[in-house]
Specification:
The chain has 3 domains: 161 residues, P-loop containing nucleotide triphosphate hydrolases (Rossmann fold, 3-Layer(aba) Sandwich); 34 residues; 116 residues. Helices cover 53% and strands 7% of the residues. It is built from 15 helices and 5 strands. Strand 2, helix 4 and strand 3 form a beta-alpha-beta unit.
């Protein structure tokens, strides 16, 4: 069962993000819903779930007055059930197509056409733009027209990792809502209570999640995720001791699946962040708790400066990929940046 469909109890049913939910509830209570919102925060933190819950609430007819959106979704009315099952005719989701590098202008023009039509069932037409930072310039400029001259019954809900990835002209026309990382205790408690995860496993996943509830849920629902993570980290830990030929072979293998590349780089970024902490003798603050012995040994050899340099190198690589640099070339450059340790 998906995260979006998991709970049928009335309410938002979201772990954490109380400040954002409270802001939205107060907006709904006084019926002053803005025409556009931007939800920002790291990947897998829960942006998609919160946005869908908000959209569901905007379309919910289970409140005291069916003509007015309640402060929280009832999760029981026909409208709520349609949103949960992904077939509400007044909820539209726009995202980057799998076969394209960007959200393109044709998708935004389709949004504009749909927004000009009357609602099919609900009181509003709600449009979710997932990963709004993935719009190309033409699509982003096209969206501005809708933001500048919104239809009265249209609500746009955008998500992005960081507001700085969007045009300033877009930012000036949306209400920004920032989401923050959860604590390990919040994630652990949610895994035990809602997903019935054993205490030991919940504690490990909560630590590895690094504040990202969405990642934790994926780890519970996909048994291969933790196995894949371990394999990738073992490969990473071995990199300083291998030559350039092997490094380029690894770069070639990783570049074969561009969709997975960013997730792997995020994993590597956490690893080298942990290396910096280990070099500072702050091992208790590291995320990869099950590999602290490797971190401790390698940090003692690599050192603090090289570890910090690698953090910046990975960030530069991620930025290069966002700018459509060739994936294999970017990874090969990164491989050359990895410090070398002489094999014993």
């Amino acid at each position: 069962m998906s995260t979006l469909q998991q709970s049928i109890q009335p309410g938002w049913n979201i772990v954490g993000h109380e400040h954002a939910i409270d802001l939205l509830r107060r907006t709904l209570a006084v019926q002053q819903v803005r025409h556009a919102y931007l939800f920002t925060g790291p990947d897998h933190i829960g942006k998609a779930l919160l946005v869908h819950r908000f959209a569901q609430t905007l379309l919910c007819t289970g409140g005291p007055d069916p003509q007015v959106a309640p402060e929280a979704p009832c999760n029981a009315c026909l409208s709520c059930r349609k949103v949960l099952h992904g077939n509400h005719p007044d909820l539209h989701v726009i995202a980057r197509p799998p076969d394209k590098q960007f959200i393109v202008i044709e998708q935004i023009r389709s949004l504009q056409s749909d927004s000009a039509r009357k609602t099919m069932e609900g009181r509003r037409n709600v449009f979710i733009i997932q990963g709004a930072h993935e719009m190309n310039l033409q699509a982003a400029n096209c969206l501005l027209k809708t933001l500048e001259e919104p239809e009265p019954d249209v609500v746009l809900l955008l998500t992005a990792p960081d507001a700085g990835l969007l045009l300033p002209t877009i930012l000036s026309r949306v209400q920004q809502i920032s989401l923050h990382l959860l604590t390990a205790a919040q994630i652990e408690a949610a895994l035990e209570k809602t997903w019935s995860v054993d205490t030991g496993e919940a504690a490990l996943i909560a630590a590895l999640a690094a504040g990202r509830m969405g990642w934790a849920v994926q780890a519970v629902e996909d048994e291969d995720l933790l196995i894949e993570r371990r394999t990738q980290l073992e490969t990473l830990a071995a990199l300083p001791r291998v030559g350039n030929v092997q490094r380029f072979e690894i770069a070639q293998r990783l570049s074969a699946d561009p969709e997975k590349t960013r997730a792997i780089l995020e994993l590597w970024l956490l690893w080298w962040r942990d290396m910096v902490l280990a070099a500072h003798l702050c091992l208790d603050l590291t995320v990869n708790v099950d590999m602290r012995h490797v971190l401790e040994q390698q940090a003692a050899t690599v050192g603090m400066r090289e570890s910090e340099r690698m953090v910046h190198a990975i960030l530069d690589t991620m930025e290069a990929l966002d700018q459509n640099v060739n994936t294999r070339a970017a990874l090969e450059v990164l491989m050359l940046d990895v410090p070398k340790i002489n094999a014993m």
